[in-house]
Design a protein that fits this description.
The complex is a heterodimer.
Chain A: E1 4-5, E2 9-12, E3 17-24, E4 36-40, E5 47-51, E6 55-56, E7 64-69, E8 72-78, E9 87-95, E10 98-101, E11 105-109
Parallel strand pairs in A: 2-11
Antiparallel strand pairs in A: 1-3, 3-8, 4-5, 4-9, 5-6, 7-8, 9-10, 9-11
Chain B: E1 3-7, E2 10-12, E3 18-25, E4 34-39, E5 45-51, E6 58-60, E7 68-73, E8 78-83, E9 92-99, E10 106-109, E11 113-117
Chain lengths: ~110, ~120
């Protein structure tokens, strides 16, 4: 069974830069997995941030960017703000129409 | 603007069945695939199922395959998830989500409907 890995928690200083990653328990992530990223404040509906590795969804600030770093997909926040403190999820298409979410990263801005 | 409104959640006993629905508006429903994603209380997101724009292809997470069925009625702009043989671990908020035309990533989410499986 495919497992998508994310850091359980990360912290960043206000104005700082942080990179969240999305990997596979076995193998490397590439653009062909259509990595996408979602942001969720507790109790709220998820919000789409990035799709197709690095394309920002409508209205998403340009401090959010996506890429492939090494063998993982990555979400980088440049100039973190207090409102960026929430949970972040990635999802990968692992083939045959099957999608798998990572366990999520809880980001603290302090 | 895109709107996805789920309904049909509630409390059901283990082993029971429930059908949740999602009514879409603000886009051409017949042109887009759709997903169901769930989130157990205090847990992360879990992808559940996907259906192609024309209903000719469906895919399921291993945890629900054989018990859940995704379907759509394009004449009513409705998406459905029929859930049978429900278990306590199926307790979750169920989100309807619109897929992008290519790649099929999720771009819009509904507000969710809560399903509780309890004796």
């Amino acid at each position: 069974q495919t497992v998508v890995t994310q850091e359980p928690s990360l912290s960043v200083s206000p104005g700082g830069t942080v990179t969240l990653t999305c990997g596979l328990s076995s193998g490397s992530v590439s653009n062909s997995f259509f990595p996408s990223w979602y942001q969720q404040t507790p109790g709220q509906t998820p919000r789409t941030l990035l799709y197709n590795t690095g394309t920002r969804s409508s209205g998403v600030p340009d401090r959010f960017s996506g890429s492939i770093l090494g063998n993982k997909a990555a979400l980088t926040i440049t100039g973190a703000q207090a409102e960026d403190e929430c949970d972040y999820y990635c999802v990968l298409h692992v083939g045959s129409g099957i999608w798998v979410f990572g366990g999520g990263t809880k980001l603290t801005v302090l | 603007q895109v709107q996805l409104v789920e309904s049909g959640g509630g409390v059901v006993q283990p082993g029971g069945s429930l059908r949740v629905s999602c009514t879409a508006s603000g886009f051409t429903f017949t042109d887009y695939g759709m997903h169901w994603v769930r989130q157990a209380p205090g847990k992360g997101l879990e992808w559940v199922a996907f259906i192609r724009f024309d209903g000719t292809f469906q895919s399921y997470a291993a945890s629900v395959r054989g018990r859940f069925t995704i379907s759509r009625d394009n004449s009513k702009n409705n998406l459905y998830l029929q859930m049978n043989s429900l278990r306590s671990e199926d307790t979750a908020m169920y989100y309807c989500a619109k897929a992008m035309r290519t790649g099929y990533e999720i771009d819009y989410w509904g507000q969710g409907t809560l399903v509780i499986v309890s004796p």
